[in-house]
From TrEMBL:
Upper taxonomic lineage: Bacteria, Bacillati, Actinomycetota, Actinomycetes, Streptosporangiales
Protein name: Enoyl-CoA hydratase/carnithine racemase
The family this protein is said to belong to: Belongs to the enoyl-CoA hydratase/isomerase family.
Organism: Nonomuraea maritima
Entry-linked SUPFAM superfamilies: ClpP/crotonase
GO terms assigned for molecular function: catalytic activity
Superkingdom of the organism of origin: Bacteria
Amino acid sequence: MIRIMAFSEIAYEVSDRVATVTLRRPERLNAFTHTMRAELIEAFDLADADDDVRAVVVTGAGRAFCAGADLSGGGGTFGRRGEGETVNGAPRDGGGTVALRIAGSLKPVIGAINGPAVGVGVTMTLPMDVRLASETAKFGFVFARRGIVTEAASSWFLPRIVGIAQAMEWSATGRVFPASEALEGRLVSRVYPPGELLPAAYALAREIADNTSAVAVAAVRRLMWSGLSAASPWEAHAADSRLMAELGGAPDAVEGVTAFLEKRPADFPMKVSKDMPPGLPSWPDDPYRV
């Protein structure tokens, strides 16, 4: 069964337990707007609330993934205030609201970067768990060439993904680089011919959906992301231990072991909507979200 939700600048579809979010302004190379920002946040809210969704694939319509912020408003584009949201009195960066919502996702997120991903078009992908790219994709942290700073919390995400030296090289030069360099710099995991990108993304999503516990994957995702800021492996060990104690005797663990011993596929009964363990590491709700 395929379910489609109506949006104006993105498409949201659920099929075979995978949600597909498609940036959909192909005539503008899927340039980012306030409307797209709000719709992306709503799409991830929908995915988290739907127990039938086991993974999310994000891609772009047409020949681009996202060409960055829509600059059709001219030179004052970045000087305009947002839609009433502030951080410590300053107008809030719209790309950051999307990045933080993706970071808080309970479902694993796969970026299928089908073409140019520049500015917010690349920084929004950083909190995605896996980034796959087409051979035709190009990337650019172009902010310094526009007289602004890296946004969407990319000063936190990017160095943790590719290291500080690579992050500074790409951000200080602001140059656009090909998928091959993104792969070499570990920004993306794999590069595919254009026609093979989405099938590869869906194959990965279905491997998750068909073989794993939704609650376990959500807990692992939280452990991994919150662990990037853990003070030590001892702190991570404490978080692991809490969740092992809470989930080790839970129905999904019983089913996982029983299915293995009986040499059959597991049918995990627990639901993300109601069965998440209380010891999940803190990854707070967005304190600035209105």
